[in-house]
Fold:
Amino acid sequence: MKLYFSPTSPFVRKVMLVLYLKGLVEDVQLVLAPTKPTTPNKQVLGQNPIGKIPCLVTDEGLTLFDSRVICRYLDEKTGGGLYASGDFKLLTREAMADGMMDAGVLAIYEYALRPAGARHQPMVDAMHGKIARAIEAFEKDADAMVTGAIRIDHIALASALGYMDFRFPGIPWRPKAKKITKWFDDFRETPAMLATAPKE
Structure:
């Protein structure tokens, strides 16, 4: 398999966590392919017309993109376990964590892609508001998150919170999410999390 990736993408980290947890890292060729909405990577465009990463090319030549699709494929390829048939609450928690990552990336783009005078702070504030509300919702549903085997909602949330710490270390999300904080602070010390930590 071949994975087009960037070491700073939270969606790539989500896929990499699945690869580590499923013992598939050695089966994947990593292709560094940083990309931005304004300057898409030509290698990625050759596989994914949307131009986004992560993008996985399977051994059979099938091209998959969007982290949810890739993670589902990798889970099924290895006998399942990260998803549960009919568990739409789990899928909704995964989607909420993915929404946090979307919001975080859009907030970063506002700084990285616009000249200083053209940055729209209300947009950044709105994205941070989405993240804060999602963390609050995860805290209310913490009992579903802090127990049991690792599932895709754990992996997605860990990727989202890791991105928060990486890109927005000054935002104090922990005081209002004590149960999730304890879970995350333990989970981030696992070998898979340490191996997939984002790097500039």
Q: What stands out?
A: The two ends are 24 Å apart (CA to CA).
